[in-house]
Amino acid sequence: MPGLLSTLRNGYQAVSTSFQSTLSTVKKWFRREVTPILQDITFTVQLLYNYYGCPFVIRLFRFIKTHPLELAIGLLAIMTIIYPGIITLPFLFVLGFMSMGPAAGSLAAFIQAIIGNVTVNGLFAIFQSAGMLGYGLVLLNSFVVAGAVLVLVLLMVYLIVESRRRRRSQSGY
């Protein structure tokens, strides 16, 4: 039995020594080869941030500070393009077009009382269908999205024209 323990102890010491030697070699290789590469990458990222990132962030905050209304309108237009229901559903609710039909005492009920029978595919029928979450909602949402895209395009044109006008006034032309 003492021979087995001695053999196991010697085997463990040999494996441990081999592992320590390999680990030491890997550490030296890492310090010699990998660390300079990581330092170069870190330096490059820091340089890129200082040259491009920091000025971009400064310009972004300056834009937000000088154009809060334009930014809010642009974000609302983008949200409307993504989910037009933020405009159409409250609009239908205010008019009185509900999921069970026009609400009593609403503008929709008043208009229906004036026009009488609703014609198929008429404007009132489309709004009534939209209120009931039918095909009219898809049609109404498409018009709302088109309007939001138009607002976004006009906003971008306005900002470009304003930027060019400001540059001209600063340069003296």
TrEMBL record:
Domain of life: Eukaryota
Transmembrane segments: 71-95, 107-127, 133-161
Gene3D superfamilies: 6.10.110.10
Keyword line: Membrane, Transmembrane, Transmembrane helix
Principal place of residence: membrane
Compartments it resides in: Membrane
Entry GO CC: membrane
Membrane topology (UniProt): Multi-pass membrane protein
Family as reported in the entry's similarity comment: Belongs to the IFI6/IFI27 family.
Protein name (record): Uncharacterized protein
Organism: Monilinia vaccinii-corymbosi
